[in-house]
Amino acid sequence: MANKPKPDELLSNINYKPPRTQWTDTPVEFKKGYYCYAGRPNNLEYISLPHGRKWSSTDDDWQLVDNWKEIFLEGMENLLKKFRSFRLFMDICVRCGACADKCHFFIGTGDPKNMPVLRAELLRSIYRRYFTISGKLGKIAGARDLTEDVFKELWYYSYQCTECRRCSVFCPYGIDTAEITMMARELINLLGCCTDWISGPLANCYRTGNHLGLQPHTIKSNFEYMVDDLEEFTGVRVEPTFNRKGAELLFVTPSADFFAEPGMFTCMGYLLLFHKLGLDYTWSTYASEGGNFGLFTSNEMMKRINSKIYAEAKRLGVKWILGGECGHMWRVLHQYMDTMNGPADFLEEPVSPITGTKFENAKSTKMVHITEFTADLIKNGKLKFDKSRNDHIIPTFHDSCNTSRGMGLFEEPRYVINSVCNQFHEMPENTIREQTFCCGSGSGLNAGEIEELRLLGGLPRANAVKYVKEKNGVNMLSCICAIDRAVLPPLVDYWVGDVDVCGVHELVGNALIMEEGEKREIDLRGEPLPGMEEKEEED
Amino acid sequence: MGMLFSLVAVIALAAIAFIGVKLGLLGLFGIILPYLAIIVFLAGFIMKVVKWGKSPVPFHIPTTCGQQKSLPWIKQNKLDNPSSTLGVIGRMALEILLFRSLFRNLKTDMKDGKVIYGSNKWLWLGSLAFHLSFFVVLVRHLRFFTEPVPGWVNMIDAVDGFMQMGVPHLLMTGVVLLAAGGYLFLRRVFNQQVRYISLAADYFPLFLIIGVALSGILMRYFIKVDIVKVKELTMGLATLNVSVPEGIGVIFFIHLFLISVLFAYFPFSKLMHLGGIFLSPTRNLVNNSREVRHVNPWNPEVHVHTYEEYEDEFRELMKEEGIPVEKE
Ligand code: HEM
Ligand code: SF4
Ligand code: SF4
Questions:
Q1: pTM score, two decimals?
Q2: What is the ipTM of this complex?
Q3: CATH number corresponding to B2-302
Q4: Residue among B47, B60, B61 with most chain A CBs within 10 A, to mutate
């Protein structure tokens, strides 16, 4: 975005005062920088999403099929029958407003329809009209006819929700607006209105096994590049294998980790760690994606994309699966995978080959999070670290929405960070752990054309980073999510400045002692370690 | 608009009762409508819960609000992220009895480009007071429907009237109910965001409950009615041996009619959160989805892109890179 507004400009536009007109009488205005591009017909077709066509969300005529209303309402009835969450959440909201100011998009944009409760009311008003008795009374009962404008509005705000579930933490009944957005997007996809930034990666993932569309040879060459770098920085040559039958473990991580910085640094951390352990593991080019764009498309799409992980584990004959640092990936792995594509009776209950620890909490799904795995190694004294190699880094930790509110993975990454870094500072209490703020780009919103929306959505997170930067001199935002690693750098650049972003296993890789007496003068980014010599003299 | 509509509606309801009684329709307001209301309430409530129950819970989606159970040396938050049924019972009890999630409430604001968070427990306190007092008032009313009145009902009455003020003793919960209801109403009006999202369906039950409380308080302390005759009527209702004694003041019938409307309205409204909270899948599930497989009864058959199809497309590239293939 060449003419990106200045931070002050964006800030001065934020206003929490709702408009004078009632929300039902305030027509939606598609603001540039707030809506995604429409999905392309060839991509929709590749993943069998219906009604693909050339269209744009700013067109007056969206070229919806003639019987679109019937399709929508039938789809809605179907979902109400299939999901108790949906039916219940449509019925029981008391509009207490506890969730209203908990959404980062509301905090950042001030748009009242970004209050979770109103986002949900967009769909709820249709529910009332067509699925309840009182809704027949019309407007006074909060019911609305399904019109094209109503549908467009639902579309617009369904892609201004990152399905982060922060609202659900504060709701007295646990109403999860993410769940409602998921339903809305299922309906949107029945009408062929998926966004480009979601349908593109989905089509890629379906074909090549990863969102980025990396084909096997590209994956291999990306790894060679990392392996060479690692050798240069550490003197250790690691030897990752691909699609290797008979390996003990399959490792799956988001493809961004072997595609772009700073994810690649995290990946280098994994590589070093596994090499040090002599772990018998393999990568897969077929199941080369941990993330899952199906999660925010439709439950069937999620299942189709996810199927590759178990299928590949079975084909290769591994014992169990280890998973890398990623948010959406872990929501799917933790809460959906076993249900959708299990039971994984061809795998064994996961046991760490190094420490013998049984991962009881993963004994059915048979997939373990890398920070659970590493924390266990450290606790059992299997790894040695030179923490001072991370002394130029003053990290804080960003909890990803999905691992926080869809899993509860809080202590594991913190334990790892504290084991490999001398310094660590938490961001304010209301912005971490279960109350963590989204990066602003989750659930398929990491699209260039909505940068302004994403910057505003990421404002609460950036603000908290700024706070610890000023208070504690924090210069590194660590995280366990590939989307975070992709979107937080420009976000903190814009709002904060001089803070970098890294994965937790980059910090591990920096500090990990590969062999006694090893000297490292550069970190995994290839940057000289400042003050290493001085430190040695002091010791 | 919604507010005015609801206010007018509740006043109209009270007027209807007033006129009805003046027209001598005592049987209608004292017997038929209360019975109808109870029937609608029970049938509607059950039907709604059955409807919810019929929709399955396909995925295991608890919202986790604390540390998960993972490695044995990591301290789990057993209430906010339960890994056992007992934990879930604890979590639900906290939600239902103490409004745990509402207790987290914050006020978010923006000041000089900084997002700030203030503690905001008023909503929690106000709703807890509202619900608790409503509940106690309801239980206290058992004295009209039992003979002899059980000791514990009398005890609640005694505790409630501990201030020993006035004749009859001032019962705290009625006053608290009115005050808390008033607070919830004022909050709806003065909190701009809450006002913006409010519908008639939000004001109506509030006004109705305030109306019930107000008519009750008027009747107890100000426009007194013949309590012996009231009990004759209510006992009749309870024992299906109905009769309407002469000479009960009209205020009683207004009170009773508003309650009847509240009950009949209940199953079709947001008040069903009473039933819903127990079924909420983000709260009532154990966070053990990797430990125990959750079964989706309608798990769909889907098309997948198989490894064979993948290898067929990329075999040559894989071979060139020395990546093992199934078919040479
Ligand atoms: C298990 C039982 C119940 C629980 C846990 C519960 C919980 C809550 C909570 C947390 C709120 C939101 C805060 C608020 O707006 O005050 C609320 C609102 C409300 N509840 Fe309940 N409730 C229960 C039963 C009832 C019953 C039996 C009634 C009355 C018949 C009732 C009437 C209301 C009303 C009218 C509101 C909206 C208040 C407003 O407009 O601001 N609730 N409830
Ligand atoms: S917190 Fe829950 S009940 Fe209250 S308005 Fe939001 S979704 Fe509705
Ligand atoms: S899930 Fe997150 S983004 Fe969506 S409405 Fe709730 S708080 Fe906002």
A1: 0.94
A2: 0.95
A3: 1.20.950.20
A4: B61
